Amino acid sequence: MDTATITKPVPPAGALKNDFKRKADISDIAIDTNFASQSYWKDVRMRFTSNKGAVVALFIIVFIIIFAFAGPRMNAYTYSDQTLSQKNYAPRVPGLEKLGIFNGNETMQTTTGTKKLNHYISNKDTNVYYWFGSDTLGRDIWTRTWMGTRVSLYIAFAAVLIDMIIGMSYGLISGYFGGHIDSIMQRFSEIVNGIPRLVIVTLLMLILRPGIKTIIFALMITEWIGMARIARAEMLNLKEREFVLASRTLGAGNFTIIFHEVLPNIIGQIITQTMFSIPTAIFTEAFLSFVGLGIPVPQCSLGSLISGAFNSFTTHPYQIMPPILILALLMLCFNILADGLREALDPKMKEM
Fold it and tell me: Nearest-CA neighbor of 129 among 99, 78, 86?
């Protein structure tokens, strides 16, 4: 019997003896350090952190959330305290006033030209500081801005719960059972979606007292439609896959398949759609409060603050700037964060 000739491996030309080392450990040989396997969520985190815009947006959102809860406690004012003798005070910040900025000076346009005012000096309130200024009723804009941000965030995260509980469950159940059940459920969602949200809120204001609960209830009626459509589409795509058929063959119940088999496979799409619904809810609340159908006084939200400062925008523009900037940052950063999460959670968008 012929035997193969065993020859000793010859190093490439120019290679030294110490350039090569024999691997004796089998477990060490089996690991490819360049392309080692990693978990799905670790891969998601790596893709998300590589998106600098989404990371910056996340930090800004966390910063705003921290100030929404800590900001009102950083001075002695409350959101409802009125001091009519100190109304329309321009922003004044300790330390910065010595630099010539935020020192309480205000330039007003008159028929004869410009006029420079400082109510702190003219009213001998040299020990008074309003970091964002005071409004037409002498209320601290700093405290009211962060309290309004807190209310808007309550509305936003209530919309998240509505999406996750009502919209996701409705869409998954409708897509899984199909047939007449799916047809009836989809016709109902189309009827609900066809009613304008402003009409629903107006009718609710005639029945319920204006406030956070009324706005959340209005969002509960219509806000879940988008999530339901996404969940239904994903269910229709996955319900005939092999792992679902295997679970059904092994005796798994319908709701076990829906929430234990299919749901973990679409969690990325659910999270992305949820993040996109947050700026929509914030804008809805701001719009309703701006037109007078939202948070009642003396409570405030970003929309009611913008509405209250709109009439004095030409004379005291500093009163409307803080709530507008916070509202714009929240909506912009949540949209950028949602885009970043969509790219990180979708394996098809992974760069090869």
Answer: 86
Query: Which position has the higher pLDDT, 189 or 218?
Result: 189
Query: What is the per-residue pLDDT across 41-61, written as a single tens digit (0 to 9) for each?
Result: 788 888 888 889 999 999 999
Q: Tell me, what's the pLDDT at 10? A: 61
Mean pLDDT of 238-247: 87
| Residue 163 contacts residue 227 (beta carbons within 8 Å) | yes
- How much of the chain, in percent, has pLDDT values that exceed 90? 21
How far apart (Å, rounded) are the C-alpha atoms in residues 294 and 306? 12
**Contact yes or no for 181/214 (Cβ under 8 A):** no
The structure tokens listed for 175 are 């897509």
Residue 121 sits at the vertex; the CA angle it makes with 115 and 122, to the nearest 5 degrees, is 65
Q: Do residues 131 and 142 touch, judged by C-beta distance below 8 A?
A: yes
Rounded to 5 degrees, what are φ and ψ at 244? -70, -45
CA–CA distance, 286 with 164 (Å, rounded to integer) = 22
Spatial separation of the C-alpha atoms in residues 333 and 340, rounded to whole Å: 10
Contact 296, 210 (CB under 8 A): yes
CB 338, CB 268: distance < 8 Å: no
Q: Is 303 left (phi over 0), alpha (psi -120 to 50) or beta?
A: alpha
State if pTM tops 0.85. Answer: no
Asked if residues 294 and 318 have their Cβ atoms less than 8 Å apart, the reply is: no
299 by DSSP, 3-state: which?
Answer: coil
- In this prediction, residue 116 has a pLDDT band, given cuts at 50, 70 and 90, of confident
C-alpha–C-alpha distance, residues 45 and 48, integer Å: 5
H-state helical runs in the chain? 26-30, 40-49, 52-70, 119-122, 141-162, 168-177, 179-194, 197-207, 212-222, 225-238, 242-249, 254-256, 267-290, 302-310, 321-345
pLDDT digits (tens, 9 = 90+) for 317-346: 889 999 999 999 999 999 999 888 888 887
Phi, psi of 263 (to 5 degrees): -55, -45
